[in-house]
Amino acid sequence: QVNLVESGGGLVQPGGSLRLSCVASRSISSFNHMGWYRQAPGKERELVARIIRPGSKYYGDFVKGRFTISRDNAKNTVTLQMNSLKPDDTAVYYCNAASASNYWGQGTQVTVSS
């Protein structure tokens, strides 16, 4: 079992940046996949970015170089740096840890609006 707590969401203007953090209640080194997903109202949850151990990174097609995911096993943290944000990026962002089991955080709201 692991608890994941996200932070860093908020309201930002188009073109702005946010840095999301996910802190786990225990070591994340055993999880093969650590990642971020998002869900907008009326839409399905979709992959934003993930790191597959030991370090391969994958991004959703919509990211197009704007976001960067990083993983710090020593701090039990996964971070998502989001730049050049667009209104379409508005969603609840969820942290995910997966190996034999799948764990989700409660989510953090990101709103991109002028």
Using brief descriptors, characterize the structure shown.
114 residues; mainly beta; seven-stranded mixed β-sheet; four-stranded antiparallel β-sheet; 0% helix
Structure description:
Strands 2, 4, 5, 6, 9, 10 and 11 form a 7-stranded mixed beta sheet that branches. A 4-stranded antiparallel beta sheet has the order 1-3-8-7, with no helix packed on it. The protein has strands spanning 4-7, 10-12, 18-24, 33-39, 46-52, 56-59, 67-72, 77-82, 91-98, 102-104, 108-112. The mean pLDDT is 95. The chain has 114 residues and is an all-beta fold.
List the helices and strands and how they pair.
Blueprint: E1 4-7, E2 10-12, E3 18-24, E4 33-39, E5 46-52, E6 56-59, E7 67-72, E8 77-82, E9 91-98, E10 102-104, E11 108-112
Bulk shape: globular
Distance between the termini: 40 Å
Order of helices and strands: EEEEEEEEEEE
Class from helix and strand fractions: mainly beta
Mean pLDDT: 95
User: So how many helices?
Assistant: 0
Largest sheet, strands/sense/barrel: 7 strands, mixed
- C-alpha-based Rg, rounded: 13 Å
Beta strand count: 11
Low-confidence stretches: none
Q: How much of the residues is beta strand, in percent?
A: over 45%
How much helical structure, as a percent, in the residues? under 10%
